[in-house]
Amino acid sequence: MATPATSSGSEHILDVRGVTKRFHGLVAVNDVTFHLRRGEILGLIGPNGAGKTTLVSMVNGTMQPSAGDILFEGQSVRALPAFRRAHLGIGRTFQVMKPFPGMSVLENASVGALFGAKGGEHSLRRAREQARESLEFVGLGKRITQRADALGGPDRKRLELAKALAMQPRLLLLDEVMAGLNHVEIEEVIEDIRKVRDRGISILVIEHVMKAITSLSDRVFVLHHGEKIVEGPTDEVLRDPRVVEAYLGKKRT
Amino acid sequence: MKSTAGIVVSAVVVALLAALPWYGNTVMLQFGISVLLLATLAQGWNIIGGYTGYASFGNSVFYGLGAYGVAIAMTQFNLPFWVGMLLGLALAVVFAALLGLAVLRLRGHYFAIATLGLAFIMTAIVSNLEIAGRNIGLVLPLLKSDVLFYELALGLLVLVTLTVLWLSRSRFGLGLVAIRENEEGAAVMGVNTTLYKVLAFMLSAAFTGLAGGIYAYYITFIDPVGVFDVSLNVKMIIMAVFGGPGSVLGPVVGAFVLSTISEVLATKVTSFASMFFGIVIVIAVVFMPRGIAHLVENFRRTGWRYFAGNVRTHRL
User: Three-state SS for B227?
Assistant: First the structure.
């Protein structure tokens, strides 16, 4: 398991190598290779059903790849269960949010603080402090005593982000945290994500909101039918005819 | 609960209960032993069922193992009672660990059914074990000391309740609640869900097994059908759910209230007692499906509308 850190290992926080996911006959993700540099924001885009969420699930351990390898900070994490990857510093949000409905907002984030990176903060008091900080960061500071299932849609999205941040991750995987938000809210979240990156956290962003992708990402890669079709600087990728085709179909001339 | 007031009230209640042998009669004492043991069982179930969210029907098996631990140690090896308690404890906890690794991967109804099947299997197995007296059962040495059994049962109930109190305000307990509320979400945030579930199951088994051990010595005769009784498991669940699963005092209050109602009915209307008891349960489920603890928390705010609200939200 302990692959010694190569020269690229120190520069790349995440290395995904030839990862494939098959669901019986269906190939959801096919031989995808990409990497994430330290402190980078990498955008991941693609039409619905392209395999974006499946790819993220294999990185954080919610799903096991059928083939390929995943290296976090130079070490293979392929065989590790999700909770161990959380301890190593991989945090994620879910597109279909997974709050703890019967718990208060503060308790929700506290779970992240108590069990997250390095096994979490074992003191309940300090974990609450940490949780409160991340809740205030996303703008939920006034709602910490409410039950999670009493929150509205946008606040649930914020909670999902706060829970992941409370884990104190080094790599954050954001799966459509802006879906369903209005323009003002999207601007706020974009600003939040920038601040998170400024703390030195590397981020993978899945997003359909193109404004977010263009203003945040250092690089973008595009998934289509489970395969990586293009990768590169954001503006180049978005102009690429293959990307336009994947989203809009072939031009008929 | 405001902490100082809560501590004082709890201490007074426990002291009053502990002093019962000096002001109560034999009937009260025997009723007390049965209620205290049932409350311990409901509270033990609360750990796996209420906090972790896994509706276990295997707890009556832990109870039976605890009972047989004491019975086998005392009758077959002439060992003292406390050694038997340790044996029963070990049997229950080890069994919970092995069982937990196998069946705690199942969720919801599947977990309930798998553990339910187990109670029947255990009855069959123990009925064929020479050392456990086969299906005839075992007769334990007679110790006529209701006071001792009463105080032991009270001590165990206090111990399990303090454990649940710790659970309700510890990292471990919050991990269990996270598993109950969203298991996948908990794992992604770093909770070792398999380990936590098995530990909760073992903790639940420990108290349930000890209660079985006290029962065996108190009742002096046990047989497989009697101590691996699934209906006892159903009782634990009804009491815990009636009182409020996932709360610290709910299951204890549930056990006290339901046992008292059932006892009063049995003396007043003898032949129809179980029918009336059934009606009480049905009414409780319709009007306060989330238990006494939830009712107390919310009644002050909503008043009598609390009951109407429950009927409406659950569309009965």
Answer: helix
For the sheet with A219-224, list strands across it. Answer: A90-92, A171-175, A202-206, A41-45, A219-224, A227-233
For residue B248, give the nearest of B306, B297, B210 by alpha carbon.
Answer: B297
User: Cβ contacts (< 8 Å) between B189 and chain A: which residues?
Assistant: 83, 86, 91, 111-112, 115-116, 163-164, 167
Which of B171, B184, B185 is facing A124, going by the closest CB pair? B171
How many percent of chain B have pLDDT more than 70?
Answer: 98
- Mean pLDDT of the A209-217 span: 89
Q: Distance between CA atoms of B75 and B87, rounded to whole angstroms?
A: 13
Q: What is the ipTM of this complex?
A: 0.89
Sign of the Cα torsion B22, B23, B26, B28 reads: negative
Measure CB to CB from residue B188 to each of A60, A119, A124 and give the nearest one: A60
Residue B186 contacts A, CB cutoff 8 Å? yes
Identity at B105, one-letter amino acid code: R
Q: Domain spans of chain B?
A: 16-230
- Domain ranges across chain A: 40-53+84-248
pLDDT of A6 strictly over 50 = no
**Annotation: CATH topology of A40-53+84-248:** Rossmann fold (3.40.50)
Is B182–A98 a contact, with Cβ atoms under 8 angstroms apart?
yes
Nearest to A167 among B174, B177, B190 (CB): B190
Highest mean pLDDT among A159-168, A227-236, B119-128: A159-168
- CB A98 to CB B193 under 8 A? no
